[in-house]
């Protein structure tokens, strides 16, 4: 999820306090998820459109949206034909108008949430995001779990790559056969076994260093004047939304 191009460039998004990013992203995602009217979703789309201005390479963002919309394509194939409601004709097909409207709503919401959270969270190093979660008083065990994810998922990826290379060195060619299924089963088993062994070594090393459950950091976040301005802008944006909802 981290965008290296955004991390390397100096821009408004990168310099935002990660705590503000997490709070704003969570609040925005919650509001978009529960909103039921297209008119208000159009207003809510103003935030991601504004954030895209600071994106140096928009192609990278579209690549992140491809898996999301591929999944949504299956909803478009199923829901318009199965959703109850008034039917409309499209060539020789009978589609539900409510189902089509429902699909549009899901598609718009999913893309707005993914774009906004990606632009907010991918512009900070993952360790900064974890540090911000600690400042926001999330359970310490959960924060530590996120830290271990960030540290050891690349290690597991390298281990998987090593095992795959060793399989190719033994002339393994995947096919639809029992031998292939057994080989992949053994691959998964080796990954789990190596992960278990590595976890034991890490646990022993941490105990030897008197680890007490807290990762101490030397540098902490400093709330700057620009963060006051940014938080004010976000506050006005969300307050305007709630006022419009109240006036409808």
Summarize the structure in words.
The protein is mainly α. The chain folds into 2 domains: 4-124 and 220-247, no CATH class; 139-208. It is 74% helix and 3% strand. It has 11 helices and 2 strands. It has helices at residues 4-8, 12-15, 18-34, 38-44, 46-52, 58-82, 97-121, 126-135, 140-169, 178-208, 225-247, and strands at 87-90, 93-96. A two-stranded antiparallel sheet has the order 1-2. Helix 8 (126-135) packs antiparallel against helix 9. The protein starts with a helix and ends with a helix. 14% of the residues are buried. The mean pLDDT is 83.
Sketch the major β-sheet: 2 strands, antiparallel
Q: What is the strand arrangement across the widest sheet?
A: 1-2
Q: How many domains would you count in the coordinates?
A: 2
User: Which structural class do the helices and strands define?
Assistant: mainly alpha
Terminal Cα separation, in Å?
A: 37 Å
Q: Give the rounded overall mean pLDDT.
A: 83
Helix content: over 70%
β-strand amount: under 5%
The dominant shape is flat
The value of Rg in angstroms is 23 Å
Query: H/E series, N to C?
Result: HHHHHHEEHHHHH
Number of helices: 11
- Poorly predicted segments: none
In total, how many beta strands?
Answer: 2
Key terms for this structure?
248 residues, mainly alpha, 2 domains, 2 strands
């Amino acid at each position: 999820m981290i965008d290296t191009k955004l991390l390397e460039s100096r821009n408004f998004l990168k310099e935002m306090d990660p705590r503000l990013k997490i709070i704003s992203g969570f609040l925005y995602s919650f509001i978009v998820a529960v909103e039921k009217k297209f008119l208000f979703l159009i207003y809510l789309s103003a935030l991601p459109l504004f954030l895209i201005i600071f994106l140096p390479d928009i192609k990278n963002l579209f690549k992140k949206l491809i898996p999301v919309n591929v999944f949504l394509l299956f909803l478009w194939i199923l829901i318009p034909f199965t959703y109850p409601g008034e039917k409309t004709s499209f060539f020789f097909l009978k589609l539900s108008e409510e189902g089509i409207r429902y699909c549009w709503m899901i598609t718009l919401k999913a893309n707005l949430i993914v774009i906004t959270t990606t632009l907010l969270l991918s512009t900070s190093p993952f360790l900064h995001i974890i540090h911000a979660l600690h400042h926001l008083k999330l359970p310490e065990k959960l924060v530590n779990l996120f830290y271990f994810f960030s540290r050891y998922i690349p290690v597991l990826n390298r281990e998987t790559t090593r095992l795959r290379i060793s399989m190719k060195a033994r002339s393994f060619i995947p096919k639809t056969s029992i031998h292939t299924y057994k080989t992949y089963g053994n691959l998964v088993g080796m990954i789990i076994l190596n992960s278990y062994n590595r976890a034991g070594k890490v646990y022993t090393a941490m105990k030897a260093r008197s680890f007490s459950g807290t990762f101490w950091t030397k540098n902490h976040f400093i709330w700057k004047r620009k963060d006051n301005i940014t938080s004010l802008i976000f506050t006005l944006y969300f307050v305007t939304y709630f006022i419009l909802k109240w006036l409808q």
